[in-house]
Amino acid sequence: MAFTKHHLLRIADLTSRDIELILSTARSLKGISFRSVKKVPALRGKTVLNCFFESSTRTRTSFEIAAKRLSADTINFSSGGSSMSKGESVLDTIRNLNAMQPDIVVMRHQSSGLIGRIAAQVPQCHFINAGDGMHEHPTQALLDAMTIQEAKGKIRGLRVVILGDVTHSRVARSNILLLRKLGAHVRVAGPSTLLPPEVDALGVTHTTSVAAATEGADVVMVLRIQQERLGEFAFPSVREYARYYGLSAQHLERAAPHVVVLHPGPVNRGVELSPDVADGSSSLILDQVENGIAVRMASLYLLSGVREPVQ
Amino acid sequence: MSDLFLTNGLVIDPARDVREKINCVIRRGRVAEWTKAKQPPTGVPVLDVDGAVVAPGFIDLHVHFRDPGEEYKEDIASGLAAAAAGGFTSVVCMANTKPVNDCAAVTRYMRHAAQMVDGVRLYPVGAMTRGLAGEALADIGDLAAEGVVGISDDGKTVANTLIMRRAMEYASDFQLPVIVHCEDPHLAGEGVMHEGAVSTRLGLRGRPSASEYLIVERDITLAQLTNARLHVQHVSAREAVEAVRRAKAAKVGVTVEVTPHHLFLTDETLADFDPNYKMYPPLRTEADQTALRRALKDGTIDAIATDHAPHSTLEKEERPIELAAAGVIGLETAVPVSYRLVEERLISLSRFVDLLTRGPAAALRLPHGRLAVGDTADVTVFDPRQQLQIDATQFRSKSRNCPFHGWICHGKVLFTIVGGRICYEARMARSG
């Protein structure tokens, strides 16, 4: 089965077959990272451009490692800072970068939807969305799905809770879409101030009670809380957030047996996640990082259109 | 030359309750006579409109001409040319120029520049507050003396309720209506589109309907308190238009306009994050659209206005949607796009003309919108039978931020006549 999509921009664009193909490819490529020589020649001669218009360490590193393990040439372009004003000339930047003939562009930007608009203008190369504003972060959802499948053997029928700042989270949006496509039951939870309006239209249920949300849950995904939200009057203090909306070991006692906890990182320990949960046996946070490389290798490999099987 | 014999037209003049095939004699820029006679008076040139509709000149209560200050987007000459091509004989020009039209000198400049064009009539609106900052009243008395037809901070909402009250009281002393853009600036916040299921799906910050109807309700309340005349601009939310309907029933002096884009587009158009669908107040849901259409039909809405807001690609396509300028152009599309309301049988042809003539003229008490003997001969001739495809590349406007590019419509504007003079004539108009 071949991957037929030209870009990887949104989970919304993928069928469940596309998703399964990326995940099975990721599983087959995962072992490369555990060899003594962590490199295969699959993407030799291909150029992968990492364009990060929003600061990122993990995701950028993960994509760079993934590309290098496939022998692609990687170039990193960062325009740091969190201010979107730097992105104003982004279309020009892309036109320039594109003239350099990359095969795949991995891009992150603060603006929702911008990467899709750029991709539509640059049809000759493949784009991977590494996070666009509050919109989508498809490879994060894919690595989360891979991690859940590894732990649970399936996704269909699982009760998954997404907890925290859902409104501003591209991770939540992509995960909701993906988990729904693969047949999970998704519930979102958090303070009303951080749950988006009409969220149920995404095919989820919602609650503002962490205890109610986690009861009987198979998977709890915790989102990172950003201090900037204090300025938007989303909650009175970090202390209150931790007290009323943080995930603790007590919540997990009433979850389903063998509940697992995911977090896209970096964790604010003691805020959205208590330290004992973050480091406890149910935490899959480091598996997510491992699988992140495998999913990104799979995404690069499938989009490149290389037909030879990986050795 | 401002004499003309308009013949072979279907005259629709809602202000006089006229709908008949009759010929018009225009002399010295005014309507001289209505006649069934087929022959023109001696020496008067004939304009045979071949069965098209002859209406009082269309009036747009809401345009932005970016002049002075941002002439690369639009200037008074290009804006008036776009108005003429769109069938408008009078336009009401908002104050958010650079510098702001908050003092007599800017108003004088705008009127002078329009006189140089000598085409479509330009009626300036003065700022309500100095620099549109919402903090101190603009020179409202001077602006009135210079001929503004109302005051408005359009684009912004005066957040301070006391200043709003004082503006209403003071403007009333000069017989000026207060024209309001209704969005609570804090509640709308950084929102780029309507807040709802679509904004949630797209990951864009929302501007809730409540930010609009809160201010509509507030300003209606203040209009009752002060006895001011209130004109609500570009109503978009169901609750907002319902508030206006209730106020009208309670005999509050309020009028309201709606834009073609709010009547024909919804928040779903933002699905591709195209900034050409970004405007404030934002495109809302189908339920809101239905409520606006019902209000058009039942007479709650007084006028169709374009909120013609030119922006270059630098402020639109070249920017992330969150940073893109809000607004779309509308002068050259309003008539054919809105004519779909007649084709859809939502409103009659007479009501359609009413919304572009008598309705807007009455809202701001402009001396137009009617073609009685003695009235200024501002006339729009359009043909509901003629199909056209909207082509933004052909606009007279300097800007291209049009959400209707490619639409196929009827209701082609054939002639725009101001004071008996033809300011615009469609190519190939007089076939046959």
Task: Briefly characterize the structure.
The complex is a heterodimer of chains A (311) and B (432). With 311 residues, chain A is an alpha/beta fold. Chain A has 11 helices and 9 strands.
List the helices and strands and how they pair.
The complex is a heterodimer of chains A (311) and B (432).
Chain A: H1 16-30, E1 47-52, H2 58-69, E2 73-78, H3 90-98, E3 104-109, H4 114-121, E4 126-132, H5 138-152, E5 159-163, H6 170-181, E6 185-189, E7 205-207, H7 210-214, E8 219-222, H8 238-245, H9 249-253, E9 260-262, H10 275-278, H11 285-304
Parallel strand pairs in A: 1-2, 1-3, 3-4, 5-6, 5-8, 6-7, 8-9
Helix pairs in contact in A: 1-5, 1-11, 2-11, 5-6, 5-11
Chain B: E1 4-7, E2 10-13, E3 18-21, E4 23-27, E5 30-35, E6 46-48, E7 53-56, E8 58-63, H1 76-85, E9 88-93, H2 104-117, E10 121-124, H3 140-146, E11 151-152, H4 161-173, E12 178-180, H5 185-188, E13 193-194, H6 197-202, E14 206-207, H7 209-226, E15 230-232, H8 238-249, E16 254-258, H9 260-264, H10 286-298, E17 303-304, H11 334-343, H12 349-356, H13 358-364, E18 379-389, E19 408-418, E20 421-425
Parallel strand pairs in B: 1-6, 2-7, 8-9, 9-10, 11-12, 12-15, 13-14, 15-16, 16-17
Antiparallel strand pairs in B: 1-4, 2-3, 4-5, 7-18, 18-19, 19-20
Order of strands in the sheet with most strands of chain A: 7-6-5-8-9
CATH topology value of chain B? TIM Barrel
Q: Helical proportion of chain A?
A: 25-40%
CATH class of the largest domain in chain A: Alpha Beta
What CATH architecture of chain B would you give? Alpha-Beta Barrel
Total separate domains of chain A = 2
Strand content of chain A: 5-15%
Q: Could you name the CATH homologous superfamily of chain B?
A: Metal-dependent hydrolases
Span of the ends, CA to CA of chain B: 25 Å
* Ends distance of chain A: 18 Å
Oligomerization status of the protein chains: heterodimer
Largest interface: A-B, 29 and 22 residues
Structural class by sheet pairing and helices of chain A? alpha/beta
Question: What's the arrangement of strands in the largest beta sheet of chain B?
Answer: 3-2-7-18-19-20
Structural class of chain B: alpha/beta
Largest sheet of chain B: 6 strands, mixed
